[in-house]
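Q: How would the C-alpha cells look for this protein?
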Amino acid sequence: MRKRVVVTGLGVVSPLGNDLETAWTACRSGRSGIGLITRFDASDLKTHIAGEVRNFEIPSVIPAKDAKKMDVLDLYAIAATQQALDDAGLKITDDIADDVGVSLGVGIGGEVTLEKNVLLMEEKGPGRISPFFVPMILPNMAAGYVSLTFGTRNYNAVTLSACASSSHAIGDAFRHIERGDAKAMIVGGSEGALTKLCMGGFAAMKALSTRNDAPEKASRPYDRDRDGFVFSEGAAILILEELEFAQARGARIYCELAGYGVSSDAHHISAPTVEGPARSIRLAIKDAGATPDQLDYINAHATSTPVGDINELRAIQTVLQDHASKISVSATKSMTGHMLGAAGAIEAVLTVMAMQDNFVPPSINIDNLDPDCELDVTPNEGRERSIDLALSNSFGFGGTNASLVFRRLKDV
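A: Here is the predicted structure in C-alpha cell form.
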C-alpha cells in the first residue's frame, strides 16, 4: 500500500519577501516583487529589471567562514530550509536522521561563482581561481549543504530539468516516502543565477520582458501586451512527511500531497505542445485518485510569454473539458517573476497557502485580457474560494512537464 504524504512546513526566500508570512501577504495583496537590477550594471542589456532577493541575511546555522565557501543558491536553500523545519517543528535528531532526506531542484547552478571566477581568471590568471570553485558551482551542493547543515542521512540529490526542476524534485521525494523509503523529506528548489551572463543569454533568446520603465508591471501573464518573462531568484522549501509519522509527533498538517504527473513533449526544446502538459495534468489527477471535475484551483506555470500562457490554458481545457470554466486559475509569476529551477517550489508553497486560506491569489497586470484566454485567470484581484483540490504546473526547456496535486486532509 502507498504511504500517504503530507505537508507540514514551509519556508521562503523570494522577491516577495524572505519569510513565508511576508511573501504570502504580498501574494494575497497582488504586490509585485520586480524592480530595477541593483546587483550589477545592466545598462548595456535590453532588460534592466529582475526579481532580486533583497535584504538577505546569512542563516544563523552557518558560520561566516563556511558561508564564504558557498554559492548564493546554497545559502538561499539553507535559509528556506531552516524556516521550513522551524515551521514544521521538526528537529532532525540522530534517531530519525536515517529516515529524513533532501530533494531539491536547481535550474542552472552556481552561476554567480562561475562568472566571478571566469572574469578573475581572465584578469589575473588561473592561479587566482578559488579552491572552492568546483563545489561552489555544482548544483547538487544545494542539497548537499542542506543535508550537512541539518544532519539528514537519507536520500540526497538535486534534480535539473530547467523550469520544472523543483516540481520534479518534490514529486520524486513524494514517491520516495510513498514507497516507505523515508519518513520525511526536505523538498523544494533554489536558484541564484541572477548574473549578467545569464541575463544576456535569455535576452539573446528574446525571452525577457523589456518593460524597463515599469518593472512592477513587466510580468503580465494573460495580458494581450505581454512581452516575455522576468528573471528572478530565491528558494522555497516544503517539509513532506509520511502521514502516520507526522501524526505520531503531533505535527500541524497543511494538506496532503496526493498526486504527481510527468510527461515529455518530445517535440522541441522550447516550443511547447498542448498534448504534453495535458498528459502531465491528467496523470497527476489520476495519481491522486481524483477526477478532473473535483479540481478547484490551478497555480499555472504561466511565465508571461505569448505562446506558453495560452498553450497551458488549452492543455487545461483538454483535460477538464466543461469543468475548466468552473475552476480558478492564477499566475503567481506575475508577482514573483520566474525563479527558474525554484519556480515550481515557490508555486507549490503558494498553492498550499491558497488552500490553507481558501483564497485564490490574483494574476496581476492584466490591463487587456488576451482574447484567446477563455478561463477564469483571477485578473488583478484575489478572491475567497473554498479549495479542496489544487494543482500546480511546471514546464521546462526540453519539453519536460511536471504537475503536483494537493488535497485538503479530511479523512483522518
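DSSP finds 13 helices and 14 strands in the chain.

The two ends are 17 Å apart (CA to CA).

Upvote if useful.
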